[in-house]
Amino acid sequence: MAAVCVFCGAKVGADPRHVAAARDFGASLARRAISLVFGGGHVGMMGAVADGALEAGGEVIGIIPQRLVQRELGHRGIDRLEVVPDMATRKLRMIELSAAFVALPGGLGTLDEIFEVLTLRQIGDHHKPMALLDVDGYFGPLLTALDTFARAGFIAPHDIDHLIVEPGIERLLDRLAPYLTVAAGG
């Protein structure tokens, strides 16, 4: 079974539509028989995406650093919770387990994860897709910044042209489907 890694916040944020989208995204993964890999916490957006997948019968794998087990309260209801030594190991393990990556609204950690995946793709460490679920235009300022950096010559346009951006869950998953079929051996 192919897995999608979801990067998102350990907080729910100020807009209830964001947390609702997280729960719906998890459920959509489960309905499509796609495993969820996520940050392992049961709080915030992370908890919502995991709960949505679990409620729909999906497989859920969490990766959480030892230091955050207490702070983010590791999700105990999931299929597998891996406790790793640090954030760097967490990201590498999530990348290793996943065929594709989707960012939902989040904060600094989410941005760090997005840029880690994009940078590793840029240098050829993987060719897996990175997507943004652009709930209510949340990622608009980030996309504007990336365009600014590209126009200024600090990012090659081809390094961000492959970034998948969709406001709707099903359309985003449809665009990821070819990568997931290949990863599942089909």
Write the topology of this structure.
Blueprint: E1 3-7, H1 16-31, E2 35-38, H2 44-55, E3 60-65, H3 66-69, E4 80-84, H4 87-97, E5 100-103, H5 108-122, E6 130-133, H6 140-151, H7 157-161, E7 164-166, H8 169-183
Parallel strand pairs: 1-2, 1-5, 2-3, 3-4, 5-6, 6-7
Helix pairs in contact: 1-2
Structural description of this entry:
This protein is an alpha/beta fold. The chain has one domain (3-183): Rossmann fold, CATH 3.40.50. Helix content is 48%, strand content 17%. The protein has 8 helices and 7 strands. It has helices spanning 16-31, 44-55, 66-69, 87-97, 108-122, 140-151, 157-161, 169-183; strands spanning 3-7, 35-38, 60-65, 80-84, 100-103, 130-133, 164-166. The chain has a 7-stranded parallel β-sheet with strand order 4-3-2-1-5-6-7, sandwiched between helices. Helix 1 (16-31) packs parallel to helix 2 (44-55). The model has no long low-confidence stretch (mean pLDDT 95).
In short:
The chain has about 190 residues and is an alpha/beta fold. The chain is built from eight helices and seven strands. Helix content is about 50%, strand content about 15%.
